[in-house]
Amino acid sequence: MDKWEKALLEEDPNLDIRIWPAVGKAENITFAVCWNQPKNELKKYPNLKGIISLGAGVNHLIGDPTIPKHLKICRIVSPSLTQQMTTYVTGAALNYQRKFYKYYRQQQKKVWQRHSHTLAENLTVGVMGLGKLGTPVARQLETLGFRVKGWSNSPKNLKNIKTYVGQGALNDFLSGIQVLICLLPLTPKTEGILDLDLFKKLDHPAYIINTARGEHLVEEDLIYALDRGWIEGATLDVFSKEPLPEYHPFWNREQIVITPHIASITYPKKVASQVIDNYKRALSGIPLLNEVDREKGY
Ligand SMILES: NC(=O)c1ccc[n+]([C@@H]2O[C@H](COP(=O)([O-])OP(=O)(O)OC[C@H]3O[C@@H](n4cnc5c(N)ncnc54)[C@H](OP(=O)(O)O)[C@@H]3O)[C@@H](O)[C@H]2O)c1
């Protein structure tokens, strides 16, 4: 947390910051700045007015039932996170479409061999989750000439992007998709959504990009679908167990590109002012920016 402490004090040198577990008297703590905090911890602070997640994801907070119900939870939303996610996902989609992964393997064996590729205008990309990150990703892919579909909970109106709403429209959304991108929040409704049943409904062979949360993917189903040829490959940035254990079968699958949860990283200096803004709002009882709906879970 040293970098966070430094960045926050640069913004406001008068802040009194305590780094857990050396927090002193529990009653002095009024605002919590958290990432993967231990469960049962946040109920111990009687004067806590608000909590901010140090990233876009909030499942470490929503998934902790011991956090008192009245406490407001907010998260980081920043152009830096959006820019990083957009470039990561676009890079992964282009890697698949232009077959860079094949050329990389060929180069290691000094093989000169051309592969035909599907033109962007003939490739359908589906984005699950059209929120702060999914929408700019979908827009960027559309700008690059891909056919783009999007799926969300509530209706969206995005130029040149066909959008689908809710569980009832999931099958229509999945139909014809060749590259599927997951940018959903992790909730009871979305956990395990990338499973065999879903893979069967895509165009075959399809490609999967998961940069949301590891628990969205049923990992053994991906292996099965790869072996069946329904899925041609995947780029995965998140895993149900991180770091990905050494024994994990994904490591030995050359069709899977693995990155260590780096798609979009929160840089303290870029968001310190946002954290302080929400701290001040929480103390004044003003609605927080980027507040999470604890009922919906995101
Ligand atoms: N790998 C990384 O480095 C990294 C970094 C940052 C974030 N993330 C992850 O990226 C994901 C997306 O973040 P975000 O900030 O874009 O989230 P967000 O702004 O909350 O957007 C979530 C989107 O998912 C839709 N959605 C939620 N539940 C749904 C359901 N059951 N069915 C259909 N659509 C549903 C929402 O629909 P509505 O718009 O209708 O509400 C919304 O469009 C999160 O899982 C986050 O943890 C990963």
Written description of the protein model:
- This protein has 298 residues and is α/β, with parallel strands linked by helices.
- It has helices at 2-11, 59-62, 79-97, 100-108, 134-143, 170-174, 196-201, 219-228, 268-284; strands at 31-34, 50-53, 72-74, 124-128, 147-152, 161-165, 179-182, 206-210, 231-236, 256-258.
- The strands form 2 sheets. Strands 6-5-4-7-8-9-10 form a 7-stranded parallel β-sheet. A 3-stranded parallel β-sheet has the order 1-2-3, with helices on one face.
- Helix 1 crosses helix 9 and helix 3 crosses helix 5 (134-143).
- NADP nicotinamide-adenine-dinucleotide phosphate (NAP) binds next to strand 5.
Characteristic key phrases:
2 domains, 15% strand, seven-stranded parallel sheet, binds NADP nicotinamide-adenine-dinucleotide phosphate, 298 residues, alpha/beta, 10 strands, three-stranded parallel sheet, Rossmann fold
* Alpha carbon gyration radius: 21 Å
Strand content: 15-25%
Oligomer: single chain
The helix tally amounts to 9
Number of strands: 10
Order of helices and strands: HEEHEHHEHEEHEHEHEEH
What small-molecule ligands were found? Answer: NADP nicotinamide-adenine-dinucleotide phosphate
Q: What is the CATH architecture term of the largest domain? A: 3-Layer(aba) Sandwich
Which range best describes the helical content: under 10%, 10-25%, 25-40%, 40-55%, 55-70% or over 70%? 25-40%
Strand count, sense and barrel status of the largest sheet are:
7 strands, parallel
Label the overall shape.
elongated
Question: Which strand order do you get reading across the main beta sheet?
Answer: 6-5-4-7-8-9-10
Poorly predicted parts: none
What is CATH's topology name of the largest domain? Answer: Rossmann fold
Write down the overall mean pLDDT.
Answer: 97
The chain-level structural class is: alpha/beta
Q: Give the number of domains.
A: 2
- CATH superfamily annotation of the largest domain: NAD(P)-binding Rossmann-like Domain
The CATH class of the largest domain is Alpha Beta
